[in-house]
C-alpha cells in the first residue's frame, strides 16, 4: 500500500534514457544559442588574414585588438553608445512607471473594459513596424521631436508599454489580496497600499519588465534609422550599419568588434540582476 501510495503521489519518474535525452536536447539548444555569440567573439579578435582564410578556425591563431581600435577610429561608437544608454534607460524607467499602476487596476478590477484592454495589448504586438512609422513620424514632426533623443524615447515607451503592461498584470495577480486587505484595515489608502505593500512584492516583476524594455530599446534599429537624421544623435544599432560598404561588403573585423561591444551592456545587466529575476516574489511576505 505504501509503495502504491508513493507512486500515486510522486507520479511516474522518467527513466535514465528519457532523462539523458532531455539533457541532450537542452545541451543542443544551448549550443544553438551560444554559437553566434562565440563566433562573433572569435571574429572580433582575428586579423584580416585569418578572416579571409578559406579554412576558418574557432580560436584565432594570432589574436589581435586591431579590430577594436579600427572600429573606434572609423565610427563614433562611444557617442552612439551613450545615446543608446540614455534612450534605453529612460524608456525602461518611464514604461515601468506608467505600466505599474495600470497593471494594478487591470488585475484588481476585472471588467469588460479591462478584458478588452488586455486583448488590445496582445493584438498590438502583431502590428508591423511599417504600419506605424508614418503616423509616428507625423506626430513627432508636429511635436518638433524628430531627430531628438526624447522623441525616440517616447516611441520606445509607446512600443514597449503594451507588453510591459501584460507582464505586470500577471505579477500583480500573483500578489495575495489578503496583504492589501490587511493594509486597508490599518488605514492605508489605495496609493499607499500600492507603493508600500504591492510594489515591493513586485520587485522581480518590475526588474524583468524593465530589462525587457531596456533590451527592446537597446536593440531597436528601424525607428532609430528613420527618426534620427544627424550622426550625433544616432544610436548604436544604426552606427553598426556604417561598417557596411557601398556594395554591401562588410568590414568583418571592425564590425564584429563593434557588435561584440554592443552586446556587453545587456549581458552585464542580466548577470547583475539574474538572482532577482529568479528569486521568489513573495518570499517572506506572508506572516506565518
Order of helices and strands: HHHHHHHHHHHHHH
Number of DSSP helical runs: 14
The major beta sheet can be summarized as: none
C-alpha termini separation: 34 Å
User: What fraction strand?
Assistant: under 5%
Unreliable residue stretches: 1-10, 280-288
Secondary structure category = mainly alpha
Q: How many beta-strand segments?
A: 0
Rounded mean pLDDT is 81
Q: How much helicity do the residues have?
A: over 70%
How does the overall form come out from the CA principal axes? globular
Which radius of gyration do the C-alpha atoms yield?
24 Å
Describe this structure in words.
The chain has 288 residues and is an all-alpha fold. It has 14 helices and no strands. The chain has helices at 2-10, 16-44, 48-51, 66-74, 77-108, 112-124, 129-142, 149-174, 177-185, 190-201, 203-219, 222-227, 236-240, 252-278.
Summarize the structure.
By secondary structure, this protein is mainly α. Helices cover 74% and strands 0% of the residues.
Supply the key terms.
288 residues; mainly alpha; 74% helix; 0% strand; disordered C terminus
What does the secondary structure layout of this molecule look like, with pairings?
Blueprint: H1 2-10, H2 16-44, H3 48-51, H4 66-74, H5 77-108, H6 112-124, H7 129-142, H8 149-174, H9 177-185, H10 190-201, H11 203-219, H12 222-227, H13 236-240, H14 252-278
Helix pairs in contact: 2-14, 4-14, 5-8, 5-11, 6-8, 8-11, 9-10, 11-14
Amino acid at each position: 500500500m505504501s509503495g502504491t501510495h508513493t507512486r500515486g503521489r510522486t507520479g511516474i519518474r522518467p527513466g535514465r534514457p528519457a532523462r539523458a535525452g532531455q539533457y541532450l536536447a537542452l545541451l543542443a539548444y544551448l549550443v544553438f544559442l551560444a554559437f553566434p555569440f562565440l563566433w562573433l567573439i572569435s571574429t572580433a579578435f582575428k586579423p584580416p588574414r585569418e578572416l579571409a582564410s578559406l579554412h576558418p578556425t574557432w580560436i584565432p591563431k594570432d589574436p589581435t585588438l586591431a579590430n577594436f581600435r579600427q572600429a573606434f577610429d572609423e565610427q563614433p561608437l562611444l557617442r552612439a553608445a551613450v545615446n543608446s544608454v540614455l534612450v534605453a534607460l529612460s524608456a525602461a524607467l518611464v514604461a515601468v512607471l506608467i505600466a505599474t499602476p495600470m497593471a494594478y487596476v487591470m488585475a484588481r478590477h476585472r471588467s469588460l473594459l479591462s478584458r478588452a484592454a488586455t486583448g488590445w495589448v496582445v493584438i498590438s504586438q502583431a502590428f508591423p513596424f511599417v504600419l506605424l512609422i508614418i503616423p509616428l513620424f507625423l506626430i513627432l514632426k508636429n511635436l518638433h521631436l524628430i531627430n531628438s533623443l526624447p522623441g525616440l524615447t517616447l516611441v520606445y515607451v509607446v512600443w514597449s508599454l503594451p507588453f510591459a503592461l501584460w507582464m505586470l498584470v500577471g505579477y500583480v495577480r500573483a500578489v495575495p489580496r489578503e496583504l492589501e486587505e490587511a493594509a486597508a484595515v490599518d488605514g492605508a489608502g489605495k496609493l499607499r497600499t500600492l507603493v508600500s505593500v504591492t510594489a515591493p512584492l513586485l520587485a522581480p516583476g518590475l526588474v524583468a519588465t524593465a530589462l525587457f524594455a531596456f533590451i527592446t530599446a537597446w536593440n531597436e534599429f528601424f525607428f532609430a534609422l528613420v527618426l534620427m537624421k544627424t550622426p550625433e544623435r544616432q544610436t548604436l544599432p544604426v552606427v553598426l550599419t556604417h561598417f557596411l560598404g557601398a556594395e554591401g561588403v562588410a568590414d568583418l573585423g571592425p564590425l564584429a568588434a563593434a557588435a561584440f561591444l554592443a552586446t556587453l551592456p545587456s549581458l552585464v545587466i542580466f548577470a547583475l540582476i539574474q538572482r532577482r529575476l529568479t528569486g521568489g516574489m513573495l518570499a517572506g511576505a506572508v506572516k506565518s
